[in-house]
C-alpha cells in the first residue's frame, strides 16, 4: 500500500469557486463490518457500494486468510462466509495496514475461536494502543502477546471455551464496543457492552440485520447493548451508503472557498455520525439538507454546501465528540477561516488516531499562520475570517489520511499554496479524492519527492 511506499507530496493551490456534484465513496465503517459479518454467516452475502480503499481491502484479504471466500465481480462484492465459530487459523501474518478499525474488529471476531493469529500494520498502526481491545478479549478467555505497551505486532490466542462477558467500555470507542460484540458472537449466553457515551452504532444495526438477537437500552449508566451469542447469521444483500466522514472534505472545501456551490448526494445522517454538520451550521455555514429521506433504516440527505463568508468560532459541546470524532481535523481547517475562537473539548481520543491529530493539525496550522492553543483533551483554533489564512507552508500528514485531506482543503482557501509531504495515506479511505476535487475545480499538483 502507498503509505508503506515512497511519500507522495501534493500541493493544494488557492483556487476559484468549487462547483458541481461530489460523489464520495462508500462508508468505511460499514464496509469493514459488511465484510466481517459476511464472513461470519453461512452462504453468500453481496455488497454494493463497498469502499475500495486500502483499509477495507486489507480487511477483505484478512477475511480470506480466515477462510472466507471474498471476490469482486463487476460492481458487486461476493462473500461466502464460514459461519460463527467457523474461522480457520490463518497461515500467515494478518497485515491490517493503516486500519485501527480493521485490526480491532478482526481481533474481536477471532478471539472466541480456538485459533491463533498474528496481526501487524504500518508504522502508524503499530504505534496505536491495542490494550483497549485485548483487555476485554481476555475476559472471554483469549490471550494476547504483543510489543511493550500493548502494541502490534501482536498474537491473539483465541479462547478454547469462551465465556460471555459484561463490559463497560472505559473509552468512548465504537471499535472497542464492536470488538466485544463480535467476540460475543461465538460465546454462549449473553454478552453485554455498556457505553457511557453513544458511539457509532453500525455494528448493532448490522448484527440485527444479519439475524443476531441484539437489544439496545438507554439508562442512567449509558447505552446497554445485549447480544445473544452463537446465532446462525443469515447472509445479506448490503448497499453501503456514502461516507459522511468523506463527505466532510468537499463540504468543508466548499464552505471556505470563495464562490463555491457543491452538492454531495446521498449522505447518511445517522445521528451517531452527523455531529460535524450540526457544528458547521452552528458556525453559520450555508449547508442545507436537500431531499431528506430514509434509506435502509438510516436518515439520508443530499448535502448542499455553499461558500460561507461569515463563519464564526463556537464552542463544540464535548457530548458531541463521538459523533464527529474523525471530523475534528477538517473542522479545524474551517475554524481557521472563521472569525473568532473555536473551542473543542473532550477530545482526548484524537491523540490516539492514525496520528496524534491535535498535534498534527496544530503544528501544520501554526505553519500556515493560524493561532492554536492545546491541552491534553482540548484544543482551540482562532481564525480571522474568510481569506485570512496565510498558507505558504509545507506540512506533515504523519501517515494520516484525514490530516492530509484537511490541509489540502485549507490550501484551496489560503492566500498561498499548502504542500502536504505525503498524500499516499489518502488511498486508505478516499482513493478518488484527488480526481474528485479536480472535477469540482480545485487545483492540486503533485511534485517529485
Ligand atoms: C470507527 C470508530 C472510530 C473512528 C474510526 C472508525 C469504527 O474509532 O475514529 O475511524 O468504524 O468503529 P474509535 O472507535 O477508536 O473512536
Describe this structure in words.
The protein is of the alpha/beta class. It has helices at 28-39, 54-65, 100-110, 131-140, 174-184, 202-209, 244-256, 275-282, 328-336, 357-367, 401-413, 433-439, and strands at 10-13, 19-21, 42-48, 69-73, 76-82, 94-95, 116-120, 143-147, 151-157, 166-168, 190-195, 214-219, 222-228, 237-239, 261-268, 286-295, 298-306, 315-316, 339-345, 371-375, 378-384, 391-395, 416-420, 443-446. The chain folds into 2 domains: 10-26 and 241-446, Enolpyruvate transferase domain (UDP-n-acetylglucosamine1-carboxyvinyl-transferase, Chain, Alpha-beta prism), CATH 3.65.10.10; 28-229, Enolpyruvate transferase domain (UDP-n-acetylglucosamine1-carboxyvinyl-transferase, Chain, Alpha-beta prism). The chain is built from 12 helices and 24 strands. The strands form 6 sheets. The protein has a 4-stranded mixed beta sheet. The protein has a 4-stranded mixed beta sheet with strand order 2-15-17-16. Strand 22, helix 11 (401-413) and strand 23 form a beta-alpha-beta unit.
Residue runs with pLDDT of under 50 for 5 or more positions: none
Which fold does the CATH topology of the largest domain refer to?
A: UDP-n-acetylglucosamine1-carboxyvinyl-transferase, Chain
Q: Overall mean pLDDT score?
A: 97
C-alpha termini separation: 17 Å
Q: Any ligands, ions or cofactors bound here, and which?
A: shikimate-3-phosphate
